[in-house]
Amino acid sequence: MKKSKGLRRLLTGGLAGATLALTLGAVGMSGAIAETGGATYPDVGLPASGYPKSGTMKENLPHLSEVYEHADKDAANGEANAPRTYVDRNGFTVQPTPDDGIGWNVSYLDADQRGCTACHSLEDALMSLPTYHRLIFMGYPTEQTLANCIVCHSWSPTPLKDMIHSLHMSSPVFTAMNGNCQSCHYINDEGGFERWDYVKYDVLHGITDVSAEDANLTISYDQDTLSETDQMFYKTICTEPNEWLTDDSVIDDSLYENWTIEFTGDIANPCSMTLPELVEKFGVTSEVMKANCVVNGVGNATIFQAEVAGIDFAALVDYLQPKKGCNVVRPIGDDGYHTSGLGNAIPLDLAYESDSLIVTQMNGEILPNTQGYPAAFWVKGISAADYIKRLATINFETVDPEAIADPTKLVGVGQFIDPASGVEASKPNSAVLNYPSGVVLEDQVGKPVHLEGYADAWDEPITKVEFSLDHGKTWTEMKVKNCDVSRWVYWQLDFTPEAAGSYLLEIRTTSQTAKKTDRVCYFNTEFLFNVR
Q1: Among 73, 121, 126, 360, which residue has the least CB neighbours within 10 Å?
Q2: Between the CA of residue 436 and those of 138, 164, 439, what are the distances in Å?
Q3: Residue 420 or 264, more confident
Q4: Taking the model in full, what pTM does it have?
Q5: Distance separating the N- and C-terminal Cα atoms of the chain
Q6: Can you list the positions of beta strands (E) in 202-312?
């Protein structure tokens, strides 16, 4: 994530000192007492240094060479405190913490025990909540992070900080793991608590920096790449899990044949038709379109692209004849998803002019169950939050024109504000899609590391994507020309590492606003990869 200004250091006094004192005191209740210089301290099992305990420290200097060899000490600590590796659910070997050779990151920063995903995946955490929470499962192997939570909870009536702090501090599991404030936070030079996940790469050791000139990156992009079905994210609907259709290998043809959609509200010709009737009357149109959820946090993969086919919404509107003044269309799923207020209400003009479709096919096949079979509603240039699955009703409404004068204020069209920074959270956005961050790549020294990913800003065209391998000191720029906002920018990058080690790829994305000004994502996407 984007770096804060100023140098960073861990506090070795203050809170850290108080924590040590509390720890010593707790152990001292039952531990042995050691004497040093007339003072007494609890015996907490500190390793013996081998240095003489009598006489002054300085007069015993001749003995130092007998008991202290820093190279051996560093090597032993590095071996004892090597960063953990594990195999994730997608079969990738992952090492989230760089190996710095002497164990600094683990010994002094406790890096393997810090950050949200050090203890659990966010999907598991959500399923463990005491109340129901909708779930997002990403199809690409990109790990879901705190950034997704921040975007959604920027408008939630319950602030994320309230829930996270109370849930963790009252959790026996968190307590048993010796969790504390620094499990999730980093204390900056001013004593402020920052999110560890957002600043860790500023303080972790062992990352190999490579300048743009030396990196010699090979970069290309297109807007045509399509996602496979298993790469498409799935977001749960509002009904009970036993009502969800999640097995894409089994399609109930009768559901399509009998599925009826109602067209209601401020229209001259309200009616209902089955999907076969709609196809017979209006035909089938196809488009290549992206699905990018508005809660897609920086560096996350709640996005995909497909060739979708279905009923042309503009032709349908011409038939239904909206009444004068009608200015909003509201698609509703059979679970009643968001039917009140202006939530999921789309300006009629936007939906009419954006090649919107009632989608029944995807990539030349029947619409997958996980994408809303038998029908979903797609609109170009807005968030997939409004791509209503299992479409049951489209209601046409007349609202105060002022309420939709600024479409960016509507869910699914605009962007969200990060409450901590006060800026747009993830517009424009980017991520690596073919690996999880922290991936371990074997036998890659001197061979091209191939990375693929996307850049996107919903309704704004991407103008450039920049890549850095030296913490943002130098950048390699990829200009994007004549960007089609209905499609993602799919980039591919090759980098040949000359040595084993940990490398950090930072991605900085820029889009163009309606006022023809540059919008640069406040947070850089950060992707760690380990080469062996």
Answers
A1: 73
A2: 12, 24, 6
A3: 264
A4: 0.88
A5: 25
A6: 218-222, 234-235, 260-265, 271-274, 285-292, 303-312
Selected residue with higher pLDDT from 10 and 385: 385
DSSP-derived 3-state class of residue 252: coil
At residue 503, the pLDDT reads: 98
Dig out the tokens for 156 from the structure.
């939630």
In sequence order, what are the beta bridge partners of 393? Answer: 262, 332
Q: Characterize the bridge pairing of strands 525-531 and 439-441.
A: parallel
The pLDDT score that the predictor gives to residue 60 is 93
Conformational region of residue 203, where left means phi above 0, alpha means psi within -120 to 50, and beta covers everything else: alpha
Which residue is it, tokens 């602030």? 159
Asked if 498 and 408 count as a contact pair (C-beta separation under 8 A), the reply is: no
What is the dihedral sign for C-alpha 176, 182, 183, 184?
positive
Distances (CA, A) of 79 to 21, 237, 450, 499: 28, 47, 30, 20
Cα radius of gyration rounded to whole Å, the chain: 28
Return the bridge partners of 87, or none.
93
Nearest 5°: the CA angle 440, 229, 521 is 60
Using CA atoms of 496, 499, 504, 507 in order, give the dihedral in degrees to the nearest 10. -20
Concatenate the DSSP letters of all residues of 119-132 into one string.
Answer: T--HHHHHHTSSS-
CA distance 195 to 198: 5
Q: 16: helix, coil or strand?
A: helix
C-alpha 460/C-alpha 414 separation (Å) is: 11
Using alpha carbons only, give the angle 16, 19, 21 rounded to the nearest 5 degrees: 110
> Using 50, 70 and 90 to split pLDDT, how confident is the model at 38?
low
Q: Reduced to 3 states, what is the DSSP secondary structure of residue 400?
A: coil
**pLDDT at 158 > cutoff 90:** no
496: tokens are 């040949």
Interatomic CA distance for residues 435 and 174, integer angstroms: 29
Which pLDDT does position 3 carry in this prediction?
Answer: 45
* Contact between residue 520 and residue 509 where contact means Cβ atoms under 8 Å apart: yes
